[in-house]
Amino acid sequence: MGRNEKIARSVVRAIANTNGHKPSPSGLGLILSLFSAFFSLYCFILRKVRPADFSNLRRKHWNIDDYDYMCSFQPNDGDSGEPLKAIGDMGLSGSTFYSTNDQKYLVKSLPRYSEHSFFTQDLLTPYVQHMANHPRSLLVRICDFLAVSGWPLGRLLRAAPAHHIVMDNIMHGREAARQRGNPDWEDWDLKPIDYFFPERDIAGGALVSDDNKRQLADKFHDKIVLRRHQADDLFATLEEDTAFLAEHNAVDYSLFLVRIKVPDAAAASPDSRQEQQSWRTGVPSADGKYVFRASILDFFWAKHKAQPRLMTLLIGFWNLLTRSGHMSITTTPDEYRTRFLNMCRSIVEVRD
């Protein structure tokens, strides 16, 4: 069994462990289990962090049935394969991603200490409160947060990630659309692109591989055509969500945008009728051509943490020589929020 499969099984065991613990072995069994846990490189014992809070969000605010949620982390009927499928390393953070077989949920690792400590120590309680009080929030729905128990050898050697989030997948339904022969869904990971990006701006990008440059923010060369009430609702939600993130010092988050052609609109809103006009399940464009989904991702980079402070200091020294300007990870939260909102407004066309 390879590294990805062992990590995936650790995640699945943590999700399935609804009681939060297993019966403790005794005697020789205890010694062997401790020995095995310590020398494990990839297969960690993961625990749910604040499981009651996330369960409350799922059941009371997002209408996610506990049984259905658990079933997403089981193999398909008649399938002997793994319940989680690795979908590679994505992004410059080095995070690894997995998808459930039914594609309803993604599992993302948080390998950086500054990211998982920020979420645990600073953002978790405010996030739970914000999502409970703002049912139309565009912040990605985090359904569980998993952390390693103890200090196994693999954690000390950083052989495998020790923290993972389970989040709602707004691309759910794409594979079914492909199988029906419908046009493939399009997606963009959008950030303000007028910041200084070393991968792109130093030596014209010649010092960095094309793979790294492709992981930078996308460009959306079109418009989301909305009616006035749709646009007003969208911008009001973005204002609330970004104010929340700025209040907690978060920067460098992105807008994940999905565009689905109208012939596939039936698959764009598979959930209950009361959610059909949400950006999570699909909002029809005013020109009748597309259904759009959107979510705010990657809000774990906080300016007050050690690594972001070091990066800010280094860019400050660099700017003494080059005056290149701030990066998206070194600017202030309010300034990033302003540029992010301007970017979102620039891709929307309103038709009354």
From TrEMBL:
<dbReference type="InterPro" id="IPR002498">
    <property type="entry name" value="PInositol-4-P-4/5-kinase_core"/>
</dbReference>
<dbReference type="InterPro" id="IPR027484">
    <property type="entry name" value="PInositol-4-P-5-kinase_N"/>
</dbReference>
<feature type="domain" description="PIPK">
    <location>
        <begin position="1"/>
        <end position="348"/>
    </location>
</feature>
<protein>
    <recommendedName>
        <fullName>PIPK domain-containing protein</fullName>
    </recommendedName>
</protein>
<keyword id="KW-0472">Membrane</keyword>
<keyword id="KW-0808">Transferase</keyword>
<keyword id="KW-0547">Nucleotide-binding</keyword>
<dbReference type="Pfam" id="PF01504">
    <property type="entry name" value="PIP5K"/>
</dbReference>
<keyword id="KW-0812">Transmembrane</keyword>
<dbReference type="InterPro" id="IPR027483">
    <property type="entry name" value="PInositol-4-P-4/5-kinase_C_sf"/>
</dbReference>
<keyword id="KW-0067">ATP-binding</keyword>
<keyword id="KW-0418">Kinase</keyword>
<feature type="transmembrane region" description="Helical">
    <location>
        <begin position="27"/>
        <end position="46"/>
    </location>
</feature>
<dbReference type="InterPro" id="IPR023610">
    <property type="entry name" value="PInositol-4/5-P-5/4-kinase"/>
</dbReference>
<keyword id="KW-1133">Transmembrane helix</keyword>
